[in-house]
Specification:
Blueprint (H helix, E strand, L loop, with lengths): L10 E8 L2 E10 L4 E3 L2 E4 L5 E3 L5 E7 L5 E7 L6 E6 L6 E2 L11 E2 L5 E7 L27 E2 L3 E2 L5 E7 L4 E3 L8 E7 L2 E7 L10 E7 L6 E4 L5 E7 L2 E6 L13 E6 L7 E2 L16 E2 L4 E7 L2 E7 L7 E4 L4 E7 L4 E7 L2 E7 L4 E4 L8 E8 L5 E8 L6 E7 L13 H8 L3 E5 L9 H5 L8 H14 L4 E11 L1 H12 L6 E5 L5 H7 L3 H9 L3 H6 L13 E6 L7 H13 L4 E6 L6 H4 L2 H18 L3
Parallel strand pairs: 34-35, 34-36, 36-37, 37-38, 38-39
Antiparallel strand pairs: 1-2, 2-3, 2-4, 4-5, 6-7, 7-8, 8-9, 10-11, 11-14, 12-13, 14-15, 16-17, 17-18, 18-19, 20-21, 21-22, 22-23, 24-25, 25-26, 26-27, 28-29, 29-30, 30-31, 32-33, 33-35
Helix pairs in contact: 5-6
Length: 621
């Protein structure tokens, strides 16, 4: 895959099924228009496909329980997503909403007569509700720590509210905007539940609970008090299920997501159905659903994202799809089970689970080979990851690429970055050190209070496994990463710089003291991972050791990153330049923390070009 091949990267997204109708959303970057395009495609049981809608970008499709209509979100040009419905047998989609900040994903009522969704409602005079520009808006009065979030913006002047729309397009609001709302689900045709912060967010909290509200409107009441975080509730039979974690205070980091259950009649306390240490549910793969035998969900497991069926009363899950692959989404109508499965050589195929039928979409040309590698750290702890190899025998220059998080992972799924670098001639090492997700909760929590210790040992140990191969050149090694991976790049450059020719540190955390006040999550994240002692935070900050960095160093950041704000890059860049280090800073205008995954296509292309120019300068000679 070359940088210009981004426009060929066709990626399946959400999937829906009823009977023989299987619909999948498709997304493709458009470099010329600098946007993303894609409609809904129909997938037939023999694996063939045909376009089903023709909007600029259609996604989040949901088929009504009676099987008659499809609701979906449509983005036209640069407008906000709005809800549309269309009959399953075709026809012109009909628009149901016209909201200034757009609508959220649709959730059908059991009787198929209404759709619930969440939408942010702006204060009058803000966000385009008048003809005046942002410079004419009144100042924002900030009284809370949780006042903004990356890729969304300021929060208190556009709180999300629970809405319901009928099929005639009549929209009603069920909450008043005094608190956050997410993840609605129908208890029955007259009652909804939703997720909201503990005590409806009276004060800042990382805990959330389940609340209910009548369809007719009225008082919001507590339904389930959570043990930590709650998300994605749904009803199956006589029980209410949801995903959740367990923690106290701010100790929410590196916690496995589990499946929980409570009877609808409130006759028993909630119980966790999955093991807290070994089972971590991947919410990014979509809403869990029930079939006749259990609850279907996706579990993180050593880089695989496995579609599993969990028994209704709990216990070990049955793996249905995703072995040495990554299930990105799934759906069932009770008889047909379909999943979007990404593999090392494919961004995604629609699989009819249990039949062996997979359909793929036109995408990037031949992917480079991905090899699983394992080893041991100096303390004997097992290390695991992958090596993506260029064509030819080598020895190839090597790029060590550390993932973000840290409670995330490299996976068996298609990774466009590694494919671009391997196509350009670099062997790419992808480690999942302690701190990563998918290897047990203890593995994820092993770096709490210990950044720059066991995680570094694991990363370098796996790098040594790769460098012991004859096709990898131990004398030409670079290090790169974003977010936590950027932190690790800065840290490795300071403490093990002799091992690398150059570094590419992107959207990094470099100093926990300023991160605490500038990041959208800084008010709790730094204390949760590093502790509250300023000296301990200083000791775990790469900026503290900037005087030890002497190798060529690229500081890369997005101008509107609120997760790891721009000041984190600026402080490192200035510290290095003042010492005469060969340092450069690359800033992407208008982008947030998610540039490499969902940023403007042109910026993603330009970033790839810059990365390859950098490595060509220092690793190819």
């Amino acid at each position: 895959m070359r940088p210009e091949d981004l426009q060929l990267l066709t990626t399946p997204g959400t999937v829906a099924v009823t009977g023989d109708l299987v619909l999948v959303s498709i997304t493709t970057p458009d470099l010329e228009a600098n946007t993303y395009r894609g409609g809904l495609h129909r997938v037939f049981p023999d694996g063939t496909t045909t376009p089903w809608t023709h909007g600029d970008r259609d996604n989040a499709q949901r088929i009504s329980p009676d099987g008659r209509l499809v609701a979906f979100l449509r983005v036209s040009g640069k407008s906000k997503p709005q809800l549309f419905v269309v009959p399953v047998d075709g026809g012109e989609p009909r628009k149901l909403t016209d909201l200034p900040l757009g609508a959220g994903a649709p959730v059908w009522s059991p009787d198929s007569s209404r759709i619930a969704f969440v939408a942010r409602v702006p204060e009058h005079g803000r966000y385009g509700t008048t003809d005046d520009g942002p410079e004419s808006e009144a100042p924002r009065r900030i009284t809370r720590l949780d006042y903004r979030v990356d890729d969304v913006g300021f929060l208190s002047d556009r709180r999300p509210r629970l809405h319901v729309v009928d099929l005639d397009g009549e929209v009603s609001e069920l909450t008043d905007g005094s608190h956050d709302v997410s993840d609605p689900a129908w208890i029955d045709d007259s009652t909804l539940v939703f997720v909201a912060p503990r005590d409806l967010g009276v004060v800042e909290t990382l805990h959330c609970d389940l609340y209910e509200v009548p369809l007719a409107g009225g008082e919001v009441s507590l339904r389930v008090r959570g043990a930590g975080e709650i998300s994605m509730p749904f009803v199956a039979g006589s029980s209410l299920y949801w995903l959740g974690t367990e923690f106290t205070g701010i100790d929410a980091v590196a916690r496995n997501q589990g499946l929980w259950k409570a009877p609808l009649d409130g006759s028993a306390e909630p119980v966790r159905l999955t093991d807290v240490e070994t089972v971590d549910v991947e919410r990014l793969s979509g809403q869990p659903v029930a079939d006749a035998e259990g609850v279907l969900l996706v579990v993180r497991n050593r880089g695989a994202l496995e579609l599993q069926r969990i028994p209704f009363d709990g216990g070990p899950g049955e793996v249905l799809a995703g072995a040495e692959a990554a299930v990105r989404s799934f759906a069932t109508d009770g008889s047909t089970l379909v999943a979007v499965v990404s593999t090392p050589d494919s961004p995604g195929q629609v699989e009819f689970v249990g039949t062996g039928v997979r359909t793929s979409f036109a995408s990037v040309p031949s992917a480079r080979r991905v090899v699983e590698i394992t080893g041991s750290a100096s303390d004997g702890y097992p290390v695991h990851g992958w090596l993506v190899l260029p064509d030819g025998d080598g020895p190839h220059p090597v790029v060590l690429a550390v993932h973000g998080g840290p409670f995330m992972y490299h996976s068996w799924g298609f990774f466009d970055e590694a494919q671009v670098y391997a196509t350009a001639g670099y062997a790419v090492v992808l480690p999942n050190p302690r701190g990563s997700a998918g290897y047990g909760q203890a593995h994820g929590q092993a770096v709490i209070g210990k950044f720059g210790s066991v995680d570094v040992d694991d990363v370098l140990s796996l790098l040594d496994v790769a460098l012991a191969r004859p096709d990898c050149d131990a004398d030409r090694v670079g290090v790169m990463g974003g977010s936590y991976g950027g932190f690790m790049t800065s840290w490795l450059s300071a403490h093990h710089g002799e091992r690398f020719k150059a570094a590419w540190s992107e959207r990094a955390v470099n100093a926990w003291d300023s991160f605490s006040g500038s990041s959208d999550i800084g008010y709790f994240f730094a204390d949760a991972y590093c502790g509250t002692d300023p000296e301990a935070q200083r000791a775990m900050s790469p900026l503290t050791y900037a005087e030890k960095i002497n190798l060529p160093f690229a500081v890369v950041h997005s101008e509107q990153d609120w997760r790891c704000p721009l000041e984190q890059a600026q402080r490192m860049f200035v510290a290095l330049k003042r010492r005469g280090v060969e340092a450069e800073m690359l800033i992407f205008p208008g982008e947030g923390h998610e540039l490499t995954r969902s940023g403007q296509p042109r910026h993603r292309r330009q970033r790839f070009d810059a990365v390859l120019e950098w490595w060509g300068r220092y690793l190819k000679s």
